[in-house]
């Protein structure tokens, strides 16, 4: 028999389980609790506790906190709580249930080994099917690591799923689908040239949170937008979660990425939790904090308001909840060295306790003004599931926004829609109409064409309709307005002309994205034509439909090479990474405007209001005297056009990109570029061409753009471009 551990009254702060000399302090905040018990377990899957510790109000209660110090308790001990109090009244909305085993909301590591969601949804004891937290020693040797400080205008974000990135056998990593497995792919990320990874949710989430028909198919919550433990890395991404190694394994990943010059942005889900609505499971907040954590109906507090489409909405601007969320974010920056956060359905965080939209929500401003988060990137998905759309109007000034307006108009332009070139030009220039009047910057917009939610880039040009029947919801789930084009045939086809056009369109999308002002975001796998077979909502597909097949990186090496080179092209042009908006006015130090727009005739502005035009061209002036200028022509029409190039005194144009060409002629490195022998170029249908220029006195026999570009790039980065592989290009 285990000898009971000796106890002291303990301290109300900090919350959670904290190791100190002589034992462990436990503290949990529950304002309306009447009885509280701490249960200790030997293992993560132990059914019976080795000790039950009743807390006494006279000794173990301070204001809202219940606390106890357990002497000589070893690291690695698992624990949970039982809390009793008023239950489920219309007036209070409290949902205490002393039979439910509760997770510590401040737990640093948890186990879902015994978890059964159904048991937590119905009345009765669920101790045999509940999650447990573990006492961890959070000491770690960071080896001098600190969060990176890459300027946003230089950022290139790469959105990836930790599990799906390496779970396919073709990934050939030692620990597939884990933080450690991702470390093995860092050389690939470095060679690709991105500056940040944006990780789909890695806070502990409920994999069983899916609709019944989906669960009946053996599917589970794969994306992770069902968080329950905001301080714990997800155990499913750990190699040895039963040993409580969550923190160490995630820190190892962050440290390794930082050594490669790559920042870490976490996709965080504070708008709702996995406890869902009134019929959802009791995991932690429902049974601990009562009615304060969620938005409820003012007339009947048993009813949850749902602005997220997930059953509940976090009461983010309640003082206690605001403090919880900000403390959590500061923890991930301070203790885990995270470089930024992307906030899922962030507009839900701008709602008050009655659900109304606040002009100055305390949480949003609290995050912006936190000194610990001052150098942390903040990115909002500036809408929620109830029609609140705040792109261009999200509260605060330091926040970036997923630019859904950019995504939509660029998709339409690429598929050949007419009458939109004015908006296309505005989006390429950083969406000044959305941000400039607020004194915000081009970096306020996170530009993207695809993300995890929707078609992959290959599927965007292979399907007109979603094909989601595998999800078990009769194809009702997922967005039906994809703004896609199948190029003539729905799905796979052997037709070589369609196959070529689809690859060309993928290259077009990458080219527009990486030529646009603002912060570009790429979806992992798009660079080698990952497909989900037309499924635009793979949230439940933890299988080969979602996992990246790394054999495709070899099969589509030409597209991968194109993307690598386009990223390099962006990096060698500071003019593409301006911090301020373009003006269209003549620059002080040179005889040309910062940007000039052209239609079918050079130096003649496009017919912005022409309802039929699908051609757009621009000349972008270099910022430095050794940096080449850029000229781009985008022809999304069905016809080829011979278009003249603008004259720049003392310079000649060299072809850098032609998406209609096959590899390696589709993108030409500076060392291989040659000056054009004529002042015009034939632009094929549905293609984009890009030119760089060079100082020279004659067309024939003059220096190529290589020496000038390479010299400038060397000054900019300290690297000799012609002597180094792409893997050596720095990310800041």
TrEMBL record:
InterPro entries xref list: GH, GH13_cat_dom, GlgX_Isoamylase_N_E_set, Glyco_hydro_13_N, Glyco_hydro_b, Glycogen_debranch_GlgX, Ig-like_fold, Ig_E-set
Residue intervals of the Glycosyl hydrolase family 13 catalytic domain: 159-570
Organism taxonomic ancestry: Bacteria, Pseudomonadati, Pseudomonadota, Gammaproteobacteria, Methylococcales
Top-level taxon: Bacteria
Gene3D superfamilies: Glycosidases, Golgi alpha-mannosidase II, Immunoglobulins
Protein keywords: Glycosidase, Hydrolase, Transit peptide
Protein name from the UniProt record: Glycogen debranching protein GlgX
Organism of derivation: Methylomonas defluvii
Family, per entry: Belongs to the glycosyl hydrolase 13 family.
Transmembrane domains' residue ranges: none
């Amino acid at each position: 028999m285990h000898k009971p551990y000796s106890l002291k009254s303990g301290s109300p702060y900090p919350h959670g389980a904290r190791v100190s000399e002589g034992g462990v302090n436990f503290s949990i905040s529950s304002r309306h609790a009447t009885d509280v018990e701490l249960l200790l377990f030997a293992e993560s899957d132990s059914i019976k506790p080795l000790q039950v510790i009743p807390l006494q109000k006279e000794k173990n209660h301070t204001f809202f906190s219940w606390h106890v110090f357990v002497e000589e308790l070893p690291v690695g001990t698992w624990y949970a709580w039982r809390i009793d109090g008023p239950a489920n009244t219309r007036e209070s909305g409290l949902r205490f249930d002393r039979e439910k085993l509760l997770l510590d909301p401040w737990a640093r590591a948890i186990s879902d080994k015994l978890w059964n969601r159904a048991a937590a949804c119905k009345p009765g004891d669920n101790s045999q099917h509940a999650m447990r937290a573990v006492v961890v020693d959070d000491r770690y040797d960071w080896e001098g690591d600190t969060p990176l400080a890459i300027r946003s205008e230089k950022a290139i974000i790469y959105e990836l799923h930790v599990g799906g990135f390496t779970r396919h056998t073709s990934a050939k990593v030692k620990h597939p689908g884990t933080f450690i497995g991702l470390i093995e792919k860092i050389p690939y990320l470095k060679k690709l040239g991105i500056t940040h990874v944006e990780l789909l949710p890695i806070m502990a989430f409920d994999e069983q949170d899916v609709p019944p028909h989906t669960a009946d198919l053996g599917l589970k919550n794969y994306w992770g937008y069902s968080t329950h433990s905001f301080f714990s890395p997800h155990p499913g991404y750990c190699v040895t979660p039963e040993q409580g190694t969550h923190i160490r394994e995630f820190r190892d990943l962050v440290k390794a990425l930082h050594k490669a010059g790559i920042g870490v942005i976490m996709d965080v889900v504070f708008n709702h939790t996995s406890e869902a609505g009134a019929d959802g499971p009791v995991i932690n907040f429902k049974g601990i904090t009562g009615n304060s954590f969620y938005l409820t109906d003012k007339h009947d507090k048993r009813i949850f308001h749902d602005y997220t489409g997930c059953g509940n909405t976090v009461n983010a601007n309640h003082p206690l909840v605001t403090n919880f969320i900000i403390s959590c974010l500061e923890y991930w920056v301070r203790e885990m060295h995270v470089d930024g956060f992307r906030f899922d359905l962030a507009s839900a965080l701008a709602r008050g306790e009655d659900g109304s939209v606040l002009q100055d929500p305390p949480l949003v401003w609290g995050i912006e003004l936190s000194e610990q988060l001052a150098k942390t990137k903040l990115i909002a998905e500036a809408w929620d599931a109830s029609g609140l759309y705040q792109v261009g109007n999200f509260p605060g000034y330091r926040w970036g926004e997923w630019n859904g307006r950019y995504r939509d108009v660029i998709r339409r332009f690429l598929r050949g829609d007419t009458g939109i070139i004015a908006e296309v030009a505005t989006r390429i220039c950083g969406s000044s109409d959305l941000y400039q009047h607020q004194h915000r910057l081009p970096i306020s917009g996170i530009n993207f064409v695809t993300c995890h939610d929707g078609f992959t880039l290959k599927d965007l040009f292979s399907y007109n309709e979603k094909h989601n029947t595998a999800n078990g919801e009769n194809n009702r789930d997922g967005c039906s307005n994809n703004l896609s084009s199948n190029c003539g045939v729905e799905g796979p086809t052997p037709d070589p002309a369609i196959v070529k056009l689809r690859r060309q369109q993928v290259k077009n999308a990458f080219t527009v994205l990486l030529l646009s002002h603002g912060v570009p975001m790429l979806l992992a796998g798009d660079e080698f034509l990952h497909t989900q077979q037309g499924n635009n909502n793979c949230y439940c597909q933890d299988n080969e439909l979602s996992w990246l097949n790394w054999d495709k990186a070899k099969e589509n090496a030409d597209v991968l090479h194109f993307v690598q080179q386009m990223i390099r092209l962006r990096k060698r042009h500071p003019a593409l990474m301006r911090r301020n908006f373009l003006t269209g006015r003549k620059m002080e130090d040179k005889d040309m405007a910062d940007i000039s727009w052209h239609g079918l005739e050079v130096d003649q502005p496009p017919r912005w209001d022409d309802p039929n035009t699908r051609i757009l061209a621009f000349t972008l002036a270099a910022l430095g005297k050794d940096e080449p200028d850029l000229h781009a022509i985008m022809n999304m029409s069905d016809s080829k056009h011979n278009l003249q190039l603008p004259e720049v005194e003392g310079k000649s144009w060299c072809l850098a990109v032609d998406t209609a060409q096959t590899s390696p002629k589709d993108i030409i490195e500076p060392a291989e570029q040659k000056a054009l022998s004529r002042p015009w170029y034939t632009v094929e249908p549905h293609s984009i061409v890009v030119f760089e220029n060079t100082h020279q006195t004659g067309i024939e026999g003059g220096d190529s753009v290589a020496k000038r570009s390479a010299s400038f790039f060397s000054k900019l980065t300290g690297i000799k471009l012609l002597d180094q592989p792409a893997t050596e290009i720095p990310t800041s």
